Amino acid sequence: MLTPGRLNDGTLPTRQLRNGSNASREPIEYGLGLVFGAENGRRYATHEGVINGFQGELKSWVTERVSVACLVNIDAGPVGSVDENTRAMAAMIAEGARIALA
Predict the structure, then answer these.
(1) Which of 70, 74, 37 is nearest to 56 (CA)?
(2) pLDDT single digits (tens) 61-73
(3) From the CA atom positions of the chain, what is the Rg in Å?
(4) What is the spatial distance between Cα 55 and Cα 40, in angstroms, rounded to a whole number?
(5) How do strand 42-51 and strand 54-61 relate by DSSP bridges?
(6) Which residues pair with 69 in a beta bridge?
(7) Whether the Cβ atoms of residue 58 and residue 80 lie closer than 8 Å to each other
(8) 84-90 average pLDDT score
């Protein structure tokens, strides 16, 4: 689960950056339901989900053995939307991580 999937040629798949430029692409690190990334020099694995009336995210810093979960009973809107609720959840996860990783 902690190994990102790769294309047949061994490279990571890519997606267009949020700035909308066709020339700007970033690699997608995704493995069996987990998305990978790095913040402040620390690697993490995360999974989020949305369904009617519920939104949740679990973010884990595997090396540090720290996980932070945020579960909210709200109408979160369509999957993948960036709205006030999603930003609030990201802020709560960041604060939990700041406390746990300090």
Answers:
(1) 70
(2) 989 999 999 988 8
(3) 15
(4) 25
(5) antiparallel
(6) 58
(7) no
(8) 79
pLDDT band at 74 (very low <50, low <70, confident <90, very high): confident
Q: pTM value? A: 0.65
Q: What angle do CA 78, 89, 5 make, to 5 degrees?
A: 70
Please list the helix, strand and coil fractions of the chain in percent, rounded to the nearest 5, in that order: 20, 40, 45
Please write the tens of the pLDDT for every residue from 8-37: 898 888 877 666 556 677 777 777 778 888
Q: How many angstroms separate the CA atoms of 69 and 56, rounded?
A: 7
Helices (H) and strands (E) in the chain, counts: 1, 7
Q: Give dist(CA 97, CA 69) in Å, integer.
A: 10
Joined tokens for residue 50: 């949305």
Q: Which residue type does 75 have?
A: D
